[in-house]
Amino acid sequence: MKNIFYLVGVLLLVVSCNNPDSQKLESKKRVDDISKIKNDALLDSLENEHNESVLSSGDNVTNAYIFLVDSTFSIRADIKKDHRIIGYAKPNINSERLIFFSIFTGDVEGNPFGCELGAYYDTEWIENTYLKFIDAQDDFVKVIAIEEPNTVTELYFEKKWIIFE
């Protein structure tokens, strides 16, 4: 009987002890979670600050151009004007952001919003990718990004940031 109590005690002790590797992983996960929360807060702060700057600029913003002659989509950054023009996966500003054009370094450097096609100051910064206008749909324009060698991605930009020429 004494042996059974001893065996149960040892078994409980072994089961209740945590694996040190498990503790390290859990600690790393908590640090990663805290980093993600801080990063999300920073991105939210950038989002609010930069959106406010663009909105307060009124009509004095850089627009994207669609040249109807060849359907080229182009944005030229102007240091004296703000812009934040985003290409979405669907014609909805709540859909996934695929490409980001902004005058703000915080929006561009390191692609902080994780856009699949990247973040740029303007279209001149893109290498091996061409943007072509396809169609205007309600409040959005449909554009395709053609990446060499021949990978095509559909994008949608808000029409309010576009000038047709």
Please give a handful of descriptors for the protein shown.
single chain, alpha/beta, three-stranded mixed beta sheet, 34% helix
How big a fraction of the residues is strand? 25-35%
Could you give the order of strands across the largest sheet? 2-1-9
Largest sheet, strands/sense/barrel? 3 strands, mixed
Total strands: 9
Count of domains: 2
What integer is the average pLDDT?
78
- Write the element-wise H/E pattern from the N-terminal end onward: HHEEEEHEEEEE
Terminal CA distance reads 93 Å
Explain what you see.
It is a single chain. The chain is 34% helix and 30% strand. It has helices spanning 2-16, 20-56, 105-108, and strands at 64-67, 72-75, 84-88, 97-102, 119-120, 129-137, 140-147, 151-158, 162-164. The N and C termini lie far apart (93 Å). It has two domains: 2-55; 59-164, no CATH class. The strands form three sheets. A three-stranded mixed sheet has the order 2-1-9, with no helix packed on it. It is an alpha/beta fold and 165 residues long. The protein contains three helices and nine strands, in the order H-H-E-E-E-E-H-E-E-E-E-E. It is globular, with a radius of gyration of 25 Å.
What's a quick, concise take on this entry?
This protein is α/β, with parallel strands linked by helices and 165 residues long. It has helices spanning 2-16, 20-56, 105-108, and strands spanning 64-67, 72-75, 84-88, 97-102, 119-120, 129-137, 140-147, 151-158, 162-164.
